[in-house]
Amino acid sequence: MSPRMPAGQPPRLRAVPPPAAAILAATIAAMVAAMVAAAGPAAAADAEAGRRIAEQWCASCHMVEGRRSGGDAAPALAGIARDPGRGPGWVRAWLNAPHPPMPDLSLTRAEIDDVAAYLNRLAGR
Description:
It is built from five helices and no strands. 51% of the residues lie in helices and 0% in strands. Helix 2 (47-58) crosses helix 5 (109-123) and helix 4 (88-96) packs antiparallel against helix 5 (109-123).
């Protein structure tokens, strides 16, 4: 049984001896590395799949690379891709929660990543 602390005083913390602290730090680092390795590599975004999504869902309003026809109601995708204020993070956020007049396409995260990869390719990134 541990000695009782006077009321209102915080408990005393014991310092971890240096060798034990090093072992604890190494154990935590090994556990984190194992969890990362177990998760496996993240699937890389596919710019070609993003182009196909853009042709299917975006071409009615935006000009899509490689198409002779497309909408002109919204900026061309190449222009969006090259706009320095509209990087990949902006594109992902916009596609997750678009504002009118753009409809919510309900794309999955993987599809959004693919479209962002396609726009990066258009921008030369």
